[in-house]
Amino acid sequence: MTEFSINTPKGKREIGPGQPVFIIAEMSCNHHQSYETAVKIIDAAAQAGVDAVKLQTYTPNTITIDSDKEYFQIKVNEAWQGQTLHQLYQQAYTPWDWHGKLKDYAESKGLVLFSFPLDVTAVDFLETLKVDLYKVGSFEVVDIPLLKRIGQTKKPVIISRGMASLEELELAIKTLKDNGCPQVAILHCISAYPAKPADMNLLMIPDIAKRFKTVVGLSDHSLGKTAAVAAVALGASIVEKHFILSRAEGGPDAAYSLEPAEFKDLVLSIRDAEVALGQVQYGAGLKEAENIIFRKSLFVVEDVKKGEKFTPKNVRSIRPGHGLEPKYYDQVIGQTAAADISRATPLSWSLIAK
């Protein structure tokens, strides 16, 4: 398994099997163009117990052009319909002059803050902020010029698979690595907003891990926490989900974002799931050992005189487990008692005549 490690305000952080799941709160446009709200999101994310906050770095003009031609009109997703791409991104983008301040603030809270650049100018800008890793979003998997520039930073990259075919994903990763990227983690992602449980295809997670021999995770656009927790059980080492202070505030991503209390519950559920995975172990575990006594064993259930034969009437397999194991029952029946035995005595080899 290829290692994946990043620098954090708390030191080097290893991400992968056997390590705590790396949990990312995606701010996206949920700040509603308010710097104060963005800061509050970081505060709430820290209180929820996440590891990182993710931004998106673009402007309306770096991601598209201002045109109302039919090509640029949004006709999918009820929350986005009725506007052009430029209009959507005008309300959704994160002002670039916030990035440095938000990064410093997040790091003061012990969180990693990184971003998803949507064009090469965004990468150039993020490099001035000395970010420690990059995200490639699912729609950008096919943007080879962008991937080349991200690879040239020689920083670790988390890439969302999204709609990418196997060939497209292979080319994206090859492009990143050929241009200097040292480590790539792949997130399974369904690029639907929101994504329905029936569309999640979480079995992709172990398949990606096997095919690419890399750290895997989930970028989750579904409602609630079920998919994310299930993903951890299937091997996800990274979970990314949208974070909002209140869905009642609305906004392009509100419908599939979690509020602070919900995100905290998600974090706790993920931590429970990763602990519950444990290890492969047959036999009684540490906490089970004390309950072995409640297994069945062979007991004398009627008074037996010395020299008397053991029969199904006077020997039974019952709880608790102080006597011989039940697997010896056939060997015991027909043998004779080595001494007088009172009812409710656990049977032992010393009580059986040789």
TrEMBL record:
Gene Ontology molecular-function annotations: N-acylneuraminate-9-phosphate synthase activity
Entry-linked Gene3D superfamilies: Aldolase class I (3.20.20.70), Antifreeze-like/N-acetylneuraminic acid synthase C-terminal domain (3.90.1210.10)
Name of the protein in question: Pseudaminic acid synthase
Every AFP-like domain range: 297-354
BP-aspect Gene Ontology terms: carbohydrate biosynthetic process
NCBIfam families registered for this protein in UniProt: PseI
Matches recorded under Pfam families: NeuB, SAF
The organism of origin for this protein: Candidatus Buchananbacteria bacterium RIFCSPHIGHO2_01_FULL_44_11
